[in-house]
Amino acid sequence: MSSHPTPTGSDPLVRVDRLRLDIPVRGEARRVLHDVTFEVAPGGALGLVGESGSGKSMTTRVLMRLLPHSSVTGGDVLFDGTDVTAMDRRALRRYRTSEVSMIFQDPRAHINPVRTVGDFLTEALREAKVARKEAESRAVDLLREVGIADAPRRMKQYPHQLSGGLLQRVMIASALLTRPRLLIADEPTTALDVTTQEEVMAILDEQRRERDLALVFITHDLDLAAAVTDRIAVMYAGTILETGASKDLHLTALHPYTVGLLASRPSTVDVKRLWAIPGRPVSAFEAVPGCVFADRCPFVQDLCRQERPALRPVDDHQVACHRVEELRGRITYEPDTHAGRRIEQQPDEQTEPV
Description:
The protein is α/β, with parallel strands linked by helices.
């Protein structure tokens, strides 16, 4: 699978700028997304990566307007220049049925088990007043495009009669049937074996290139994100800590958290012990006055705990770290047959131990 470069000079189809999201918890508004900022152009792909609870899925649900009990308290969420948060019911219906689609993590949880695959696939087209015969013909053609043999027979089957890999292909076909311009894939390969995972991602990459789709891809796997996206945004506790080009982020990572994630990857050599980021992930619901990564960062200083760093340009990255210029080139990770990959930190008298 090869990355497809974002078309040069393309205006962004999706622009999220300083998005802030509050959710009521026991009568109190809690900030769960903090100034989230990114863009995706037609034909481009953005990978959202980070530990569980970092705000990746929450961000895409804002794009889909799937959070009825939440409140966007700041920033812009624009699709082709239109404010998604301000769409009325009619505009929102048109947006969801023809402009944006989503592939969910577990297809069995999102496909009605008492309806046939054909009914599931053609529902959106029938809602759009497409004739049943045409809707079924388009569904069969798309099932073939995503690698499902004997598509007419599969249309008559129920979800329990299909394997996990086939069901995920059905989900992809369903997402593409309405010919959207934006595709959101929320960990679409989590429950699949490695071979099927590669096949599914190859289908997504091929469909993106052929249809000039904008893709937002959510995953825990940095290597997988690097294979199918143009840029990666690393999220933590509802905050984007770093963005950079997918092809070289593993060599040029600047934020201590990004380096820590890369260092935690298993090596292909004989590994006896893997390095892990110390401490526990901060919940997006926790109120942290300074940098959200401060309690786990080996380079933390007083300023880090007192003031939240803004996402700003550094080289060809965007980085939210007070010490990024000072630490640039000092945080490294290298293969080690005894300890997997590790972070090597030079002594620093100003660095507080954690």
